[in-house]
Amino acid sequence: MTITTPSLARAVARAWARPLAMPLALATLLLAPSAQAAWTFVPTLDLRETYTDNVALQEAALAQGQWVSEITPGFMLRHKGPRLTVNAHYQLQYFVMQDKDISGTNRSARNLQADAHAKLIDEVLLVDAMATRAQQNISPFGQVVQNNAYSSANRTEVQTWRVSPYLVHRFGSEATAELRYARDSVDAGRVGLGNTDGSTTSLNVNSGAAFRTLGWGVQLSEQKISDSLATDSTIKTGNLNLRYKVVPTVDLTAGVGYDSYDYNSLGGATSGKSWNAGAAWNPSRRTSLTASLGRRYYGPSRSLKATHRSRTTTWNIDYDDSVTTTRANFLLPSAIDTADMLDGLFRANFPDPIERQKAVEAYILANSLPPALANNINYFSNRYSLQKQLRASMAFREGRTSALFSAYRVRREALSVRETDSPLLGNSVNTINDNTSQKGFTASLDYRLAGRTSLTLASDVTENASLSGDLQMRSSSVRLGMRHQLRAKLSGTVELRHTAGALVIGRPYTENAVSASLSMQL
User: How many CA atoms lie within 13 A of 473 on its CB side?
Assistant: First the structure.
């Protein structure tokens, strides 16, 4: 469906008439070229009926069975022009239950994933913008909710936005420079977790094509964060990187830098010098490997990133350590981007990037995949932490079968004082976020039974532990669904689901559910 820019402006303004998405909406509308540019606007409507034997994910003695009727209007918005690129997906879910007053349940939920890129002046002034809105898990030691948005157990709505204008300049073949400013916000609307606003100024200067054998780069950054609960903080970093090409496929890398944080620490350093040394191997366009080791103010530091793509598979594995916060993980998720993972898998069948993007989005919707794999690793905390994470994923597609697997292991060690988490956790359990360990595995298998019918089996397992609070919890879910394409823009799905886990008090819960749904593009 193609509509004109004025009609689009009215549609987007009505759908995004919320403080959350105003920066992105304004950027999209104001930067849109006045020419007769074509936009793709696809309204969607999902209808679902579910019976669950534990609607609020409570222990067995308190479990309540319910019929849940769900209606979900939404839209997908795309534009790719010479000066502006926009991608957005929005859904508004309404839930009607057999019993109207059940605690621990939602009556509505909103989901938004949107980003835009604009060229105001070619190769001089550009703007990036993004906005998200979604239900997120609050604690790693409670119910893990993924596919039943009607439950509010251990969940709340988090909204983020970021707008970043930047200047670029090319100094012939000698160097390129980028001066960027970013304004962002994270709002969880929850007592105990501070709402934050950030502003970041950064300068990146990198060598150009003239430096074929010995390359270099300089990065400088200052970020100021205003927090409604914790003390405001400032982060300053500076790095000088060198790259030496040994042979066409192998580079040696090295770097020095300095980090400065001003959070209230537990007694350790909050700033200091850093160094790293490593290598990069790129034998082909399908394979790459980079690795480094070094030291930062908090101790040893290591990184690894490996990718490989064949005709039928894509492989990714990476490890890194960094000082991070809840807000940073919401703005720049540490999970694996589902669309990026599938993009390489669909490249052979859809060489055109626009057609490939449509195929990836259709696959994600058809298989009820989240925007990010291993998307339960972030949790609410007002503290700075040292995060060490290992992630691996593999996607496979051939003939009638496609599959997606991911695994992760994350360890966080608190660096700032625990008092900032007292409003969130209370005084009796405020140590559980001191040191945490999380690991998990997800798998999704899709088999096309016939031209219009497919069978999907999906499962995930997570294990979270508080190393300081002697607390360990495990949760799992499995889904089996059959999807049939009734018409070109109409599909139906029947699904069975089983979920098991434990409450923060240690008592187990289970949920069994069956649902039937219709998904339409209008």
Answer: 22
